[in-house]
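User: Structure with adenosine monophosphate, tokens only please.
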Amino acid sequence: MKVMVPVKRVVDPNAKVRLKPDGSGVDLSNLKMSINPFDEIAVEEAVRLKEKGLVSEIVCVSIGSPRAEETIRSSLALGADRGILVGFEGELEPLAVAKILKAIALEEAPNLIILGKQAIDYDCDQTGQMLAALLGWPQGTFASKVVVEDSAVIVTREVDGGHQTVKLDMPAIVTTDLRLNEPRYAALPAIMQAKKKPVIKKPVDAFGIDTAARLEILKMAEPPARKGGVKVKTTQELVEKLKNEAGVL
Ligand code: AMP
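Assistant:
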């Protein structure tokens, strides 16, 4: 069984993000970049399935600048087998990403594609669903548990107020939620080994896909600065403030 894991290079979740002065986007210069945390969970899940003897090959795909190779290498250090880097400068919308991933899926014929539920840069939460629709494959999104059973995958989904369990016939799409697993730290020998694993590079033009943006970002703004808090002396004063000032009671 083959698993494909799309991995995106994003701003490190611990980095402090600044906006460009004209509000047209995020200023990425000198910011630490990392693998999207949900994608790291996706790679970890694929590696765990491989360790159980259920998966024979894990292929990671990243679409982005040449530096996205680092993202692929970090996935290879976690245990993936090989990578595909699709070169593109700039930001692609989820539909274009899903179309490229579809073309690669048709070439690679994986049994399972595990994506992150969302990329933490733009929080779109769309690519997995669009890819499932384009391929006509079943999808189990927001997975907190994945069990492979013969030719099916049983996915426990995090839904409002509880869990939903679905059984998907493979080939299928799964997107990861935070509680699915805790990714391992790559050990130094694994990082060294990852440098030797194959990564093939393809230009985005090779796919003949319309990558034009459908959305125009009008403005991005920082959240308003938080006002300082006040200390109250009594519960009565707290209740009075919640009622009359905050208007939440
Ligand atoms: P999004 O729909 O943008 O929130 O992204 C959801 C998931 O799609 C991510 O967690 C990745 O698994 C995948 N994805 C999105 N953009 C890319 C990209 N440029 N390269 C590889 N995978 C991507």
